[in-house]
Write the structure tokens for this entry.
Amino acid sequence: MTRAAFIDAQGQGRHGWLRTLGTLGLIIAGAIVVLIPVRMLVFPWLQANGTDMPEPMRSGILALAAGALFAGVLAGLFLGLRWLHRRSVASVLTIAPRFRVNHAAIGFTLTVVLVGGVGILIDPGGVKSLADFDPAIVAFSLVAMLIGFGIQASAEEVLFRGYILQVARRALRARWAAAALSIGLFTVAHYGYGVESAVFSLITAVGLTACVLLLDGLEMAMGIHVANNLVVGFLFQDLADANAPSASGFAWDQIAADAAIMLALVGIAFALRRLALRPAAT
């Protein structure tokens, strides 16, 4: 049976719809506080200069902008947890006494290898020609994406598979109904411009939610999410075209590969759980 300590918020805090709505309001306010200057300053500057800017630099700046926006989301959520729910920030991160860096590192490393390796095998022509750019620009892009996606992806995990999952558990009572709601909201939020985008997001959401439930914490899911966005943004995708409509027809090979990767990562999470439950030698 899947353990419920994390999804039950470890029994911490005060709950109720008014507190939840207030926290969601703080999340929206935090996002707006950041979004206004980003839209007024960063986006006009990119529109004026982006076409002449090397793609890795442009994508790095966009990743930083996304990180700034989600930093506002995190700030609003953390204020809601402390002021309204009266519980610790750690309660939406992990059941463990400390953040399990090893779980995050395992998820990050395996995802870099699997997503990068499989992506190159499926579409070697789709890899960016980073060797054509100044090494300083490439280095800036990598660091900017590590920072930007580190914040953005981690914030999404805290929001969807931390806070929303726990709130849904209290509202719906059934653990799997709560998981389904969290998965559904994540998929809708990442719908993009086509069904194919929704399918990728659904597969990812199911896999990451399974990791969270198996390990009673977000650490491995955070590592996976950050690494996936980093590899896709750094090696394969111009972030300025991230919202472009999907090409006609389904990329069945990529969808199958994504499902296989997530299944493998869930298997690793299951193995980590088994190791944690193994009695200590005497």
In short: The chain has a mean pLDDT of 91.
